[in-house]
Amino acid sequence: MQRWVGLRHGCDVKDADVYAALRGDLMRYATALVGVSDAADVVSAVVTRTLESKGGLTDLRDPKPYLMRSILNEARMRHRSNSRKRRAVMSLSGEDAPPQHDHVLDVVMELPERQRAAVFLVYYEQYTPTEIADLMGCRPATVRRYLHLARRKLKEVLDE
Q: Mind listing the pLDDT tens digit for each residue in 109-130?
C-alpha cells in the first residue's frame, strides 16, 4: 500500500506505473496461493480483467486491496476447477485418496485458499490480522480463525 500512496501523489500516474509498483507483492501472493507455475497466469488474468472492467488501475481508489482480493478469488476459482478435475481422474483410476506428504510446504499448499492466504500474509509478508482483513475483505476475527484452523491442520498432519 505504501508504494501506491507515493505514486498517487504524482501528477501523471499510468496503469503501468501502478502495476510496476504492485507487481512483486501480487506475484508473491499469487505464488503462495496457486504455486509458482500458475502465479503469473493468475496475476495476468486479474489485471487484464480489471483493466477491461474498471477502466484501468488508476481508476481504482486503492488498487492493492482490490487486486489482492481478486487474486484470492481467482485462486479459489482455479482450485475448484482443479479439484473437479482431480476427482474425475481419481474416480477413473480407482484411487481413493491422493498420497500423503510430510513436507510443511506441501501441507500449507493443501490448505483452503483463505487459510493459505492468511498463513502467507502473516508468516511471509509480516502483515497483522487487521491489515490482512483489509486485504481479504473480512474482519480481523475471521483472519484469526483462518490462522487457528491452518495451525491446527498443520499440527495434525505434521504430528502423524
A: 888 989 989 998 998 888 999 9
Q: What is the 3-state secondary structure (H, E, C) of the chain?
A: CHHHHHHHCCCCCCHHHHHHHHHHHHHHHHHHHHCHHHHHHHHHHHHHHHHHHHCCHHHCCCHHHHHHHHHHHHHHHHHHHHHHHHHHHHHHHCCCCCCCCCCHHHHHHHCCHHHHHHHHHHHCCCCCHHHHHHHHCCCHHHHHHHHHHHHHHHHHHHHC
Range of the domain at 144: 99-160
Read off the CATH number of the domain in which 103 is found. Answer: 1.10.10.10
Whether residues 21 and 92 fall in one domain: yes
The pLDDT tens digits of the residues spanning 100-110 come to: 444 677 788 88
